Amino acid sequence: MTPRHSETEGSGPEEPVVVRDRRRVDPQTGEVHPPAAEETPAGAEPVQHAGPSLGDSVDEAVPAASDIEKQLSERTADLQRLQAEYANYRKRVDRDREAVVQGAKASVVGDLLPLLDDLQRAEQHGDLTGAFKAVADKLVSSLERSGLEAFGAEGEEFDPSIHEAVQHNTSPDVKGPTVTLVMRRGYRFGERVLRAALVGVTDHEPGDAPAEQPVDPPVGGELPLDGSVDEPGQQ
């Protein structure tokens, strides 16, 4: 037993026992303790966390932000260009669709023009009466609502783009080429001329030139006004 006691005494002074309270809440007061700083053992170097310094992070963040802005502007320009192309495509499709519809309507109305000519002749001869007249009026009204327009009437100014002249006269009663006879009406559907009007045209004709005024005879030996002098022996 004695040697063991001597070994204990010769080992030197014992290290003090350190008790650290790592509780966040004080059990007596209920207060929250601040987190304890990690202690670095004696003789050990402080641990440095790997990571870029403040200067390095700023230098790298600026080029990254500029690249993002450049890509954003490029994508925005592409989107705007795509939207403009799509809008133009929609307008072109709508325009072509409307042209096809108007062309189909004009073709159907063009096939009915001989029927309208028969109705016009029947009306001129007084045969368009009763129920027949009521049906004809409904047909003409429906075609006019669809866009059909008749032209070619006496007194209109002659227009070679819509009038086809088959007769020509002259008269001083008109100031220029004027439609004075309508043989067949013309029709247009919207801006499209389906058929030109057959007309007779009267052009302006100048009137007769005014007669020359008579020269007054000489009175009392005076010379005539035209300056002529009778030679002797002439009456």
TrEMBL record:
GO biological process: protein folding
One Pfam family of this chain: GrpE
Subcellular location: Cytoplasm
Keyword line: Chaperone, Cytoplasm, Stress response
CDD domains (UniProt xref): GrpE
Biased composition (Low complexity): 34-46
One term of GO molecular function: protein-folding chaperone binding
Biased composition (Basic and acidic residues): 17-26
Span list, region Disordered: 1-69, 200-235
GO CC entries: cytoplasm
SUPFAM superfamilies on file: Coiled-coil domain of nucleotide exchange factor GrpE, Head domain of nucleotide exchange factor GrpE
Function: Participates actively in the response to hyperosmotic and heat shock by preventing the aggregation of stress-denatured proteins, in association with DnaK and GrpE. It is the nucleotide exchange factor for DnaK and may function as a thermosensor. Unfolded proteins bind initially to DnaJ; upon interaction with the DnaJ-bound protein, DnaK hydrolyzes its bound ATP, resulting in the formation of a stable complex. GrpE releases ADP from DnaK; ATP binding to DnaK triggers the release of the substrate protein, thus completing the reaction cycle.
Family: Belongs to the GrpE family.
Assembly description: Homodimer.
Protein name per the record: Protein GrpE
Organism: Amycolatopsis rubida
